[in-house]
Amino acid sequence: MKKFNIAVIPGDGIGPEVIDEGIKVLNKAAEMDTSFQFSFTYFPWGCEFYLKNGKMMDPDAIQQLQEFDAIYLGAIGFPGVPDHISLRDLLLNIRKNFDQYVNLRPVKLLKGAPSPLISIANENIDMLFIRENSEGEYAGEGNWLYKGKSHEVVLQNSVFSRKGTERIIRMAFETAKKEGRSLTSISKANALNYSMVFWDEIFEEVKSEYPEVETSSLLVDAAAMLMVKDPKRFEVVVTSNLFGDILTDLGAAIAGGIGLAAGANINPERKYPSMFEPVHGSAPDIAGKDISNPLASIWSASQMLDFFGYKKYAQAAIDAIETLLLEGQILTPDMNGTSSTSEVGDRIVSIMERMISHSY
Q: Boundaries of each Isopropylmalate dehydrogenase-like domain copy (predicted)?
């Protein structure tokens, strides 16, 4: 039996609540397949830990996490801790140290999910964003000069290396080729005359090696407009750290809301653990009330199952979410329901069990 050791960082606010429901899904998949099982080790890191200890994680946190097969993260952020500290000292720290340079964000409108786009067909919103996750605009390079003076100057530098840019674009081409889908590159070369011109040139270089992949290249502002006006034109999408961050939240808005938005931070070479997370915030105002939406956390658990090679169970989790939405009976308040977080998780695993037993 294959045993996967998972580091769980429930984090802040609703993080522990939604993570619990994702773990139900992972355990249900393992229960129905005797070839693998999961072992979970919990870490108390996050903003509450910061308020007590002055740091987001233990000093040797990266060394501790390196021993695991994957990381499952709930949510980070809480009043009293500046967002740039909570983000950079935990989430970005893990991404960089473990070279999780691929951020995978599915933007798919499931049947039964709401969309603000009028009369949109579900099949017309089905994108996979492949976002550069280790450098670019979020490299954290820059300087703050003459702080507090009248001539104060702030420098925020973007970092685009040939290695970093080429590997994410190549990953996107490989994905598009494997799935038989088109690939769209999103940049802003007309205004960013170094970084984005460089991005576009690398895209063209790699493109020559994949003549079978249909491609297009868009400016980020045009892409934002077209995601709303003509979303079906986007299948696989590759873009930089900042643009990917912004556009995937737009994607969440048109594909059911942030409560359905999941993300995976992948180290494709598997030298280091990858990390899976719902991408919503910690929602401290509803923490502890058992009314938070766990579907994004469950979707990210599905991504973990897919990463480990258990595609049948990964798909069963997504199909169970879709069935739950179509039933419309057990939903949390943010989706106009009255059910609890745990009731939603229980219903998902019940649907999964039925599907796997009878249909898969």
A: 5-348
209 burial level (CB within 10 Å; 0-12, 13-18, 19+): exposed
Does 159 share its domain with 239?
yes
pLDDT in tens, 232-273: 999 999 999 999 999 999 999 999 999 999 999 999 999 999
Q: What is the DSSP string of 245-296?
A: HHHHHHHHHHTT-GGG-EEEEE-TT-SS-EEEEE-S---GGGTTSS-S--HH
> In the structure, what pLDDT confidence band is assigned to residue 357 with cuts at 50, 70 and 90?
confident
pLDDT-based confidence at residue 360 (cuts at 50, 70, 90): low
pLDDT of residue 152: 97
Q: Where does a domain end: 231, 255, 279?
A: 255
Q: Read out DSSP for 47-112? A: HHHHHHHSSSS-TTHHHHHTTSSEEEEEE---TTS-HHHHIIIIIHHHHHHTT--EEEEEEE--TT
Residue 147: per-residue pLDDT: 96
Q: Which domain holds residue 126?
A: 115-255
Q: Indicate which CATH number applies to the domain containing 240.
A: 3.40.718.10
pLDDT at 105: 98
Residue type, position 108, single letter: K
Give CA separation, 74 vs 14, 71, 79, 96, 193, in Å: 8, 10, 17, 18, 38
Output the pTM of the full model.
0.95
Of 255, 283, 299, at which residue does a domain stop? 255
Phi, psi of 184 (to 5 degrees): -115, 125
| Total count of domains within the chain | 2
Please state, in angstroms and rounded to a whole number, the distance separating the CA atoms of residues 332 and 26: 21
How far, in Å, CA of 279 to CA of 109, rounded? 16
DSSP labels, 301-329:
HHHHHHHTT-HHHHHHHHHHHHHHHHH-S
- Looking at the fold, whether 14 and 100 belong to one and the same domain comes out as yes
